[in-house]
Amino acid sequence: MGILDLFKRKPEVIEDLDLSWLQADMHSHLIPGIDDGSKSMEESLDLVRRLSQYGLRKIITTPHIMSEYYRNTPEIIKMGLEDLRKAVKNEGIEIEIDAAAEYYMDEIFLEKVKAGEELLTFGDSYILVETGFINRPQMLLEIFFHLEMAGYKPVFAHPERYQYLVADKDLLQDLIDRNIIFQINLLSLTGFYSKQVKDFAETLLEKANVRFFGTDCHNSRYLDMLETLPKSKTFEKIRHSEWLNTSL
What we know:
By secondary structure, this protein is an alpha/beta fold. The chain has helices spanning 41-53, 74-90, 107-115, 140-149, 163-167, 169-177, 195-207, 220-226, 235-238; strands at 24-25, 58-61, 64-65, 96-99, 102-104, 126-130, 153-157, 181-185, 210-214.
């Protein structure tokens, strides 16, 4: 062996990403032009095609509804869904497409809940909700309470990314005690967001009521990184466990 051979490394082999065990992705941003996700129908079709090739049978895409930034309504989302469905069918992509929404938890959202306005849900009355990443909303627990009183099953989107939740162990325990359903982004397990997010995601898998996984796909960069998921030490464990995605 020559001295140069010592510095040669064999290329790392990563197995192809298989998400057939998950069956359905319930968090993504694939309706073009209505939030910070896909910008065009061409981009949406490319993303849907790739997700289909991972073995998913269904996508429930979830555009943001945020009072200050993305003022989407059920009507806007439903119209976008129909356009996406038609385009997917015309392309011959074999996958089911549905839509719900990712609701930002603020005063305006709470008023919608209290007023009984139409809210987009998926599966068995599940509703996907999120907060800002830095500061805890003062009305967080109040909103969860009113959602449950209204008959919804709130699903807390990507809690592993909330810095306030990492820092506030009492709040985390309160959410665990209340049996709030958590949804973790698969990308978090790859280190896509940060090592801290990755570590906290793994902690939540052990401690919290994590029942859903989502891709939270916004663009091709997300899927490029998602394809490294088989390298994650937790991948083998999660793909042999049961998740509510399979019931959707």
